[in-house]
Specification:
heterotrimer; A alpha/beta (145); B alpha/beta (658); C alpha/beta (324); A: 145 residues; alpha/beta; Rossmann fold; 4 strands; globular; B: 658 residues; 5-stranded parallel beta sheet; 18 helices; 34 strands
């Protein structure tokens, strides 16, 4: 059997909702694809678009941005900024030639361990189908010494 | 300490077999030893145990570690534990970082190879961040020994009295002319049937006379600035046109005033004068002049009131005044409103005159109310039959999804009072009877024995279109009696709607002023639904009563007392620790574009006019880091989660080797 | 270097010529420049031959002001040659510093660009599909053309560069600051950008609200702006807050939003990400639907946010078309 492609998924998420949701998935012993790695910030509002771009450039095949539901931010409305940045970041990454399905925004609360599992698995499968991003070789300089 | 020479120690926890059963902890420790700046790595059965923590302390001293990583459970679990252990060895606790290889790894994966690989990655990410960690100082600020209470209902009064009795100063602000709130409107209280005013007014008087309570009625909060322990509040004291120092509250002016306006206290069922007290037992007793109703303000004539005022208390040039108070804690007890009974339009409120609301019935039944306590229809006749419709707007996805919690009980109370005063047949149309409090179920049983008719089924609509002779001239309730499995039409003379409790109309505005969140139902959001029921997202701002959600009087009073105790605990402590991992501005890079000022949820960012740059008030900052991600000049640093640290984590996880 | 004037070379690569015009725009101060330097090379003003340059000794030139991006073999050759001949290499203008407007070509590759320019554009008539080729044999012999690259490069991406002078073009003030620093020998550490380290907003005279908000985005032709109020708050994608200052906020002073030609701030990891994050964060939207709708009005975010900096952005370019 040919070895299947294991995508690398970066999860940039807030401490209070999604990180805690992933903790809940753990304490509930739910199982999901081992392809995701969480990078914790205090609020999804801390997630600078350049973090997403750096992860993709470095070698991540997909990035999940996740935070508290829009009406439910630990910091009142930090996540509103994430919500506003995402559509234009998404469009811009598509202009860069990055498939839309590689980057996703999800609201996952501390009580939604099951949702975290679902999203982690979906994301892994979707990106697996897209194949490696391998940004560096896709964009490597061509005909210059 | 300089960042140049990090010496990182990595400690990998087995957590018994919780981690070691899936993750090869030896491999993780071995991999850690090869990571940049790691000078020591070991694994141990239970890192959080005393010997485990001792391991950290000893290794810090022995290997001169200046960064510590524990790869174990979630930092949300044990980060405080290991920060303490790190600090015990003399290291700044913020030089500690945790890798979550249990909740995010061993517990959620079954493939041992993949799990071990992931655990190594998570340690790699923590090591990469640790290299750039910086020591942070815990900071303390003094607490202003005074509490602001917003809202003079029973929750606010209770909190004010508890705090004042404890020896701390209180400013109690109430929007209306008198304190007392909703409870003052009620006639009797369930299930004990004691007179609401009789138990409330003594408390109102106590609050007014208490040397530690400064009462500011007819006043509203304009602006709240500052942070836990040090709030500055601007309060608008609305013009009353009567000098409270001179007025003796004799009430002659009220008698003599020829102008009238609708009484909100009487729910629009009767009129009050243009110079008025909210209700006869109002506290304070000094009336106010309603500028909109008083003819003097319209045509410059009248002043009938003043002619009879012996002490000459009228001040026609009175104006709104803004006063400033410094307080250490704030209790928000702004109460509730009721859903517009016309919104569930099928019950005919506003069109069918004998369809009234519960709170209107409270006034009708009250001896000081519009009918002097007589239960009569709009035609002035005693009703032969009355229907009480439960859950009007409550438990209804079209309006309020939640249960208003008090309606079942006051419906029982109404039924009893109607039975007591009239010969009417009383029907209750209900979904479930929710009688959960002390003595509540017993009260329900008592009512069952009193001959009240209970029909299990929510009323579908109320109409005056008679189909039979018996229905002529009546209001007809249509409902499905679910216990009988058939649809009923019940003709009655009076319908009482138990309409839903809702947030106050200006709840969004108030929430914004005080920096508190709101739950999806619109009520103010407590910090934790179970364990922190009176705290809010803003430290030093607490909730009491129905502004947080529907509740009855005992629960409201209990929450008032609870809010008082947390506020007191803050005042007693005298100082308060504020977030160390805040944001900071690099002055030289800031262009003063002010974009950060808009994104800060806590208004912690100001503008330094002289330097024309942003300035962060570290005491207000909660460290969310939104400003750092927003700043277009990269001039804001989110401490403990700065760009360098997060990018190092990303590089460690995803950049290819070499 | 007593007695002898410093030797100056100016060169243009993938450039519109604006940088050279801007150099002349310093007006009578050009005489100071001419007096202070011995101008050895300036293609726009003086004739020269490549072999003249080759004959110079290594490091014979004290300062070389190189404008324009590098996108073909000739430009690369000259960049390398001038590097060898010059003690100090200055990337002059937005194109040399960040790739500039030509850098937007990194959304495509040579093939797609040729197909458009020599193929299907309306004004092109090329039924034989003749595309530029580096070598062409004709009866008289072999003709050569520089080889056109897939990528547009900023100067420092192909040779080491000591200083950067940003701007499209650099303003006369910026140029004189740079020239002055060179004349006086008061040069900052190598790698520095000559300019100020604060964003453009610092220099902009327009008034800003304490809590700026964007109600909706407009393109410049869609709105008559208030001349005194911050353009960003009026819904124009003014990038002043994310752009290095030094130009004196020229564009905003004439009702044009800043387009970012002075490049990213010194501590920025990506100019486009900075501008995007700041602008989106203050859009007045409290639910996802409104956010999506309002952000959709910001057309062509990539072109907006990387107008001058695509070749030095984090993602550098769009993937090349697969070769057929």
């Amino acid at each position: 059997m040919a070895e299947q492609f294991e995508p690398k998924i970066a999860v940039l998420c807030c401490n209070w909702c999604t990180y805690a949701g992933a903790d809940l998935a753990g304490t509930s012993r739910m199982k999901y694809a081992p392809n995701v790695r969480l990078i914790r910030t205090m609020c999804s509002g801390r997630i600078d678009p350049s973090f997403v771009m750096t992860a993709l450039k470095d070698g991540a095949d997909g990035v999940l941005i996740a935070g508290c539901h829009p009406a439910d931010c630990h910091y009142i409305n930090g996540n509103h900024k994430t919500m506003r940045r995402f559509p234009v970041l998404h469009t811009m990454l598509a202009q860069f030639g990055i498939e839309r399905d590689r980057v996703r925004l999800e609201w996952i609360s501390a009580s939604e361990g099951d949702r975290f599992v679902e999203v982690a698995n979906e994301m892994t499968e979707t990106v697996r189908k897209l194949g490696p991003l391998d940004w560096k070789s896709r964009t490597a300089a061509g005909n210059v010494a | 300490m300089k960042n140049d020479d990090p010496r990182i120690g990595v400690f990998v926890c087995h957590c018994g077999t919780n981690i070691a059963g899936i993750v090869n902890v030896d491999s993780v420790a071995a991999a850690a030893r090869t990571m940049p700046f790691v000078v020591h790595a070991e694994e141990y059965k239970f890192m959080c145990s005393d010997p485990g923590q001792a391991l950290v302390r000893d290794a810090i001293l022995k290997h001169r570690l200046n960064r510590v990583i524990v790869a174990a459970c979630s930092p949300r679990m044990h980060e405080p534990t290991f920060r303490k252990a790190t600090a015990l060895a003399g290291l700044n606790p913020y030089l500690f970082e945790m890798a979550n290889i249990r909740e995010h790894c061993s517990w959620v994966h079954t493939d041992k190879v993949a799990a071990t690989e992931k655990a190594i990655d998570l340690v790699k990410s923590a090591v990469a961040k640790a290299r750039y960690l910086e020591p942070l100082e815990s900071r303390y600020v003094n607490v202003e020994p005074k509490v602001l209470i917003v809202g003079g209902g029973v929750a606010g009064i209770q909190a004010a009295l508890d705090i004042a009795n404890g020896g701390t100063k209180v400013v109690l602000v109430e929007r209306q002319q008198s304190i007392g709130g909703r409870m003052a409107q009620l006639d009797k209280t369930f299930p004990t049937l004691d007179c609401s005013a009789c138990i409330l007014t003594p408390k109102m008087v106590q609050a007014a006379q208490h040397p530690n309570i400064e009462l500011m009625t007819y006043s509203e909060i304009e602006e709240v600035k500052g942070y836990v322990g040090n709030f500055t509040v601007r309060i608008r004291r609305k013009a009353t046109f009567i000098d409270p120092k001179v007025c003796t509250a004799c009430g002659v002016c009220i008698d003599k005033c020829p102008w009238k306006a609708t009484s909100s206290f009487e729910e629009g069922l009767s009129k009050r004068k243009a110079v008025y007290r909210l209700f006869p037992q109002a506290v304070p007793g000094i009336p106010v002049v309603d500028k909109d109703a008083c003819k003097y303000f319209e045509n410059g004539k009248c002043k009938a009131c003043e002619k009879f005022c012996e002490p000459h208390a009228f001040r026609w040039d009175d104006q709104d005044k803004i006063v400033e108070e410094k307080v250490g804690a704030i209790i928000v007890a702004t109460g509730y409103d009721l859903i517009d009974p016309k919104l569930p339009s099928q019950y005919g409120y506003g069109k069918l005159k004998n369809v009234i609301t519960g709170i209107e019935f409270e006034r009708i039944n009250n001896a000081t109310g519009p009918t002097a306590g007589k239960i009569v229809t709009k035609e002035g006749k005693e009703p032969e039959s009355v229907a009480i419709l439960h859950c009007i707007g409550s438990r209804d996805r079209n309006h309020c999804e939640y249960c208003s919690r008090v309606c079942c009980m006051y419906a029982l109370k109404f039924a009893h009072l109607i039975k007591e005063k009239t010969k009417a047949t009383v029907y209750n149309f209900y979904i479930d009877m929710r009688c959960f409090g002390k003595g509540y179920e017993e009260f329900y049983h008592r009512l069952l024995e009193e001959g009240v008719k209970f029909i299990r089924g929510k009323a579908a609509y109320v109409t005056d279109q008679a189909l039979t002779d018996a229905e002529q001239g009546k209001l007809i309730i249509s409902a499905e009696a679910t216990t009988l499995g058939k649809t009923l039409r019940v003709p009655v003379d009076m319908v009482i709607l138990a309409n839903a409790m809702t947030p106050q109309k200006d709840a969004a505005d108030v929430a914004r002023k005080f920096g508190i969140g709101r739950s999806p139902d619109g009520f103010f959001l407590e910090k934790h639904p179970k364990l922190e029921p009176v705290s809010t997202a803003t430290d030093g701002v607490y909730l009491a009563g129905t502004c947080q959600g529907p509740k009855d009087i005992p629960d409201t009073v209990a929450q008032g007392a609870a809010a008082a105790s947390v506020a007191m605990s803050l005042i007693q402590r005298g100082t308060v620790e504020v977030e160390a991992a805040t944001a900071g501005v690099i002055d030289d890079l800031c262009s003063g574009c002010k974009i950060c000022q808009d994104v800060c949820p806590y208004s912690a960012i100001g503008y330094e006019v002289d330097k024309r740059i942003a300035e962060i008030n570290a005491s207000l900052c909660k460290g969310c880091g939104t400003c750092a991600a927003t700043c277009p000049s990269s001039a804001i640093v989110a401490k403990h989660f700065n760009d360098q640290q997060i990018l190092a984590q990303i590089h460690a996880l995803y950049a290819q080797e070499g | 270097m007593s007695g002898k004037k410093p030797q100056l070379a100016l060169y243009w690569a993938a450039s519109c010529g604006g940088c050279d015009v801007a150099t002349l725009d310093v007006n009578e101060k050009i005489l100071d420049v001419a007096a202070a330097f011995d101008i050895r090379l300036w293609p726009i003003a003086m004739d020269f031959k490549y072999k003249d340059i080759e004959l110079w000794a290594d490091n014979e030139i004290d300062v070389c002001l190189f404008n324009g991006a590098v996108r073909n073999s000739e430009q690369l050759h000259l960049a390398k040659l001038l590097r060898r001949k010059s003690k100090v290499m200055v990337a002059f203008g937005a194109c040399a510093s960040f790739g500039g407007i030509p850098g937007l070509a990194n959304l495509h590759d040579r093939k797609t660009i040729f197909e458009a320019v020599y193929g299907y554009t309306v004004s092109t008539h090329n039924p034989d599909k003749v595309y530029p080729a580096p070598k062409l044999k004709v009866s008289e012999g072999e003709l050569t053309l520089p080889d056109f690259f897939d990528d547009v490069f900023a100067l420092h991406q192909v040779i080491p560069v000591e200083y950067f002078v940003p701007g499209c073009p650099p303003t006369p003030e910026t140029i004189m600051t740079a020239v002055g620093a060179i004349i006086e020998g008061k040069l900052p550490p190598a790698g520095s950008t000559i300019g100020i380290n604060r964003a453009l907003c610092d220099e902009c005279k327009r008034t800003k609200s304490d809590k700026p908000k964007i109600e909706r985005f407009y393109r410049p032709q869609e709105i008559l702006t208030d001349p005194d109020k911050c353009l960003l708050e009026q819904g124009l994608t003014c990038q002043g807050s994310a752009t290095r200052g030094g130009c004196g906020a020229l564009c905003p002073s004439v009702n044009m939003p800043c387009r970012g030609c002075y490049g990213p701030m010194p501590s920025s990891s990506d100019a486009g990400a900075d501008a995007l994050s700041a602008m989106a964060s203050i859009v007045d939207a409290s639910d996802e639907k409104t956010a999506d709708e309002k952000m959709a009005r910001l057309v062509d975010p990539l072109g907006t946010f990387y107008r001058f900096t695509l070749p030095v952005s984090l993602l550098v370019r769009s993937p090349k078309q697969p070769q057929s």
